[in-house]
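Hi V.,

You were right to ask for the full record rather than a summary. Here it is.
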Amino acid sequence: MSTESQSTNVTEEETSVTEQVNASERLETEALAEPETELELDQVFEILKNQRRRYVLQYLNEVDDTVSMSDLAEEIAALENGKEVSQLSSSERKRVYVGLYQCHLPKMDSMGVVSFNKPRGLIERGPNAAVFDEYLESEPEDDGPAWHRIHAITAGASAVTLLVALLVQPFVAAPLVVLAGLLIVAANVGCSAAHYQWVRANGDEDDDGVGVAIGETSSA
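Predicted structure:
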């Protein structure tokens, strides 16, 4: 075979290899640029129907950055309990942390709503997060009852009731102090029960069967 023919064959082979490499690179670029599968309407409402998941979306919108599990759990626990973060108990933090870690964030991650790095405990907005922006913007702010105020009012009313009973008791035969005590207990138990049920209904409706893993919640 002549030198010219060999040169032509080598050139053709190089051109073929170059074309294959370019085609492969184009496919990779298109795959990376391809958006996450669009969510169905029922999937959108599946995410939005839960208050805790709405809190996640709202908080990630506000910070617009990667957040840690502990920070996210604290912020949501504060909203759910009507408290400042500094006033939260460890059980209130842990309860939200476990629900997010084992239930809500994996579900949101599977739909591309958030990006959840489970080993590192980091969360950020996912490729489908923008789908929910219009719903969150149009939704009136409703963080539920201001439970800290309700508990404060209940405590204040209890104190007033007991004081009145003590002042009036010397002038009546009925056991007003005992009756006042029973009324105070009933009012506080009722208030606490209502608060607990509200948190259960708005934060944990998808958390049934979620267990507490010691190793997973030690940083909560």
